[in-house]
Amino acid sequence: MLVSLVSNPRIRRVVRETVGGLPRQFWWLWVSTLVNRLGSFVVTFLALYLTAERGYSPSYAGLVASLFGLGSAISAVGAGVLTDRIGRRPTLVAAQLGTAVSTAVLGFVDGQVAIAAVAFLVGLCNNATRPPTSAIIADLVPAEDRVRAYSLNYWAINIGFGLSAAAAGLIATHGYLTLFLLDALTTLVCAVVIFVRIPETKPQASPEHPADAAEPKTSLLAVLRDAPFMALVGLTLLVALLFQQGSTTLAVDMGASGITPTEYGLVIGLNGLLIVVLQIPLTRWMEGRSRTGLLISSCLLTGWGFGLAALAGSSAWLFALSVGVWTVGEILHTPVMMGLIAELAPTHARGRYQGVYSLSWSLASLLGPAGGGLLLQYAGPAALWLACGAVGTVAALGYVALARRTGAAGRRTGAVTEVAAPAAAPAAEVEKAPAGA
Predict the structure, then answer these.
(1) Are 389 and 307 in contact (CB under 8 A)?
(2) Which domains does the chain have, with CATH numbers?
(3) What pLDDT was estimated at residue 423?
(4) Can you give the pLDDT at residue 63?
């Protein structure tokens, strides 16, 4: 049966259209991403480690996660600037080496202040990998294949995440220190792969490409003044606040409800598994559909998917249903946002744009765990999960308002900037003039 599937012309064509024609260096980056996420145990299990293993309060676990997010927020912008100035490869290798060392140290430190300080360093180094990775993909891959490449990289992230989350729950039963050390080791392997196999890809001015030298320089302030882009960053922040609950307050609530680390690993691993299975079929289904409609649906599914956790009690199956619903929201949201950011980011400022976009996720990792931890501790799980539904609804309304505003601007100026423009599938979407995890 497997042989017949492989030999099926339609399946071969789909596979070829999905993975074919991409540069060899991209696949080394893809392998590096996969290995890194296969070992990404610490962030997923940090809240559970602090509360169940160390005995700290949910609010302290939220504070540590927020300090991790503070480091991520600082590095998002800083790494974006460094990516454009000193190059993609040195920024990425330095970030991965720093992540490996700080993650290993986090497994050994004791005391609330020390744990919080090292968690900040882990966040600082870990998130610095995002802007150079996105820029490398944009540099290596032709414009017509770029969004497909981003989707494949995102796919690798979720393959690794799904497997690591399930495995980490089993490993944690034998001691959390092993999680920290394995995470550090896989990150170190990734740094070596990047250093050996990925060349510096930063575009350089040359006689063959004189336009590179003539490109205007885009300052960080200019990026912040790009109103349509910053509106998307703000709405992404709201959605990202919801996703942060999946690795922080969800773990704490499930632990308090009697769910074991193994069960939590399997439940949260469902997120990555569903993305791996459903991403390509759903993104093909999304082709030609309204961006606004897809973004609204994704916000509502995400918000009220988390809202379903209010009904879960001590049932791992109901928690799994909740994860399944908000995962569909994630699948709908990510490809559309990738296309929008690709349209808005100029070639010569890819690092800065990717850094500022990454800032929305970093700020969410700073604000989300702290806010969620406080709500969980002082208002209870029902209030927390219903608040998630409300945030998802607000984000959906924000996309409606943005679509109307950009639509009106497009009618006045003749520019095609509507959020509601038809969305293309990642396998076929072509980047517009100058154009990410």
Answers:
(1) yes
(2) 24-201+220-423 (1.20.1250.20)
(3) 41
(4) 84
